[in-house]
Specification:
Length: about 325
């Protein structure tokens, strides 16, 4: 049976998103990532404790509670030690970026890529705009929170707005993977069905934040909003122009997801200073990246270059912009 049937294709075209329930197996496909992050969090906790940055390693806690305890103590600075992409600014030679084999295994998962192929074709390039998002309860964060990944509530935005105009015509597909359960209580995604047909909307400085987070003004989103509750292994495919946000995490545990981007090979990624790779190719199978260590080396070399000469800005619009169109 086809991974995406004609009805599913039609819904994606009409609504700008499609969820494939149970596409990934929580044990076979997601357990390697979870185990890798348990080890990573442990290493980060011991390193920070050794440096005097935290009072305890919280070693006896399970992963979710341990993450929450560390996030609360670090005031929102934990996520930078766990993400799979470099930050937008302030990159140094030792800025953390996690490039483990568990992450690479998910990026190159054959069942995931088979579904991606339905949307972008057989020549699949892994776009380097990618994040692991471990979202603690809202009361673990201050009002302004930290950068992407730990924010209690994600503002309304379109993914195309987070990359440079060179990629406006690139056929970039967002792939959002539920690692833990995503519910209304713990901050599942919201989407505005059909909003991708309205084109790119100017994002303005979010007045609720004291830092330069850019968002679509609420009045421009429209009244059609759908909460997407998902189970571990469910995968959301979304158009680059689909407006989406998230609810705050009002539970007592984390909400864990991974969001990736894929596109046809040969098209601009919108972040040329970050390394992508060929994930699948029928025309040139020898070009496919098959080695996790080689992928990690790409990110480490990019970090060296960006530490020496970073791009002026990742933002499409001036950071101070605050007036809606």
């Amino acid at each position: 049976m086809a991974i995406v049937n004609e009805e599913g294709r039609a819904r994606f075209v009409a609504d700008g998103y499609l969820i494939l329930r149970g596409l990934l197996d929580p044990e076979r496909d997601l357990a390697p990532l979870r185990l890798e992050y348990e080890s990573l969090l442990d290493a980060v906790a011991h390193r920070l404790h050794g440096a005097g940055a935290i009072a305890s390693t919280y070693v006896d806690m399970p992963f979710g509670r341990r993450f929450c305890a560390l996030a609360r103590e670090m005031g929102g600075k934990l996520h930078k030690h766990l993400d799979i992409c470099l930050p937008q600014k302030g990159i140094t030679a030792d800025t953390p970026v996690h490039c483990g084999p568990g992450v690479f295994g998910l990026l190159t998962n054959s069942r995931l890529l088979a579904a991606v192929e339905v949307f972008v074709g057989p020549e699949i390039y892994s776009n380097p705009t990618q994040h692991v998002r471990i979202k603690p309860p809202e009361d673990h964060l201050g009002q302004d929170g930290p950068v992407v990944g730990e924010m209690a509530q994600t503002v309304w935005h379109q993914d195309l707005a987070t990359i440079m105009p060179e990629a406006d015509n690139s056929r970039i597909l967002t792939v959002w993977i539920a690692v833990s359960e995503a519910t209304r209580e713990n901050g599942c995604l919201l989407v505005a069905p059909g909003s991708h047909k309205r084109g790119l909307v100017k994002h303005c400085r979010d007045p609720r934040s004291s830092y330069s987070r850019q968002a679509i003004p609420d009045r421009l989103v429209g009244d059609r909003r759908v909460a997407l509750e998902m189970d571990p292994g469910d995968v959301l495919f979304m158009d680059k122009l689909t407006m989406h946000a998230s609810l705050p995490n009002l539970s007592e545990d984390i909400r864990w997801s991974v969001d990736l981007r894929y596109q046809p090979g040969g098209e601009p990624t919108g972040r040329p200073w970050f390394p992508g790779f060929v994930a699948r190719s029928r025309s040139a199978p020898e070009s496919v990246m098959a080695n996790a260590a080689a992928w990690a080396a790409l990110w480490h070399r990019a970090r060296e270059r960006l530490a020496a000469a970073a791009p002026a800005s990742f933002q499409r619009w001036p950071e101070g912009a605050s007036t809606a169109p």
